[in-house]
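Me: I hope this is not a bother. Any chance you could explain this protein sequence and its structure tokens? It all follows right here:
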Amino acid sequence: MKLASKFLGKLFVQQWIIGIARCNIRDIVMEKQLSADIKWLRIDQPERFYADPFILPSNNGSEYIILAEDLSFSENYGKISALSLDKDLNNAGTKVLLDTGSHLSYPFVFEENGRTYIIPESSKAGKASCYEYDAHTGNLVFLKDIIEEPLLDSTIIKYKGKYWLFGSQKIKDLHYKLNIYFSDSLFGPYKAHSANPVRTGRDGIRPAGNFFEADGEIYRPAQNNKRGYGDSISLNKLKVLNEDQFEEEFYCTLAIKKNTKGNKGIRAIHTINAVNGIIVVDGLLWRFSLNTKIKQSLAKARSFVNRMVLFL
């Protein structure tokens, strides 16, 4: 089985694409399954993918903007792009919002007092930075670095008067540890939770989207990597969160229904977000493309050489 997977990995590329559906997140929580009719925004080019989608608030309810990691295998690092969707949920255009020359992903969205803040993952840079989204220009404006830690998928919730930042770090392979930091301000300074790391393991650790509330309960989506990276999503129910304690309990697993016509070829999901009756996820495809695999290998080789040059 492992030999077959390695062989297929030489011929196929793993491509993440975005899926969107008209569905209330409460229905998903109550049903404990992802039963919505998902429209997948499939990509013609096998050498590109979009992942980690978040939804920006819509001004008129008839169009939506999705922020996502935008990665080209030939460049081998992620940027943050905005995908504009029309009322029929078709992609009406894509625009690169942020390119730092270093890998970016997971453009976490936080709304407060009529302002929209974006905190993309920039663990390669060893910090998390906060930007404000300007709806008039459609651009991101840098505000400040809020924490100097190489965190994966930083996700913030305002709870009982404080801002709680959840972020993960890789231990080895697909094992992660979850750390929590808290502050009186969104912009910090953030103090480490006394119980860090609050959780470790393959399942239910690394954040997979924003917190959401249903029937008075708060849920935290997290990646389930037991069967491989980004296989499905574990929903955890928040039980206790204060400066000294953290407790959550497993609620359910959200997995893609792989054998349906609408989900043809989709093998896994690892992000879910919801805004005003719209949910957005990302799905994994395996696409045959020997040419793309060659480009991917060359890009990794260039990246390695560039890193080595820095030490000379």
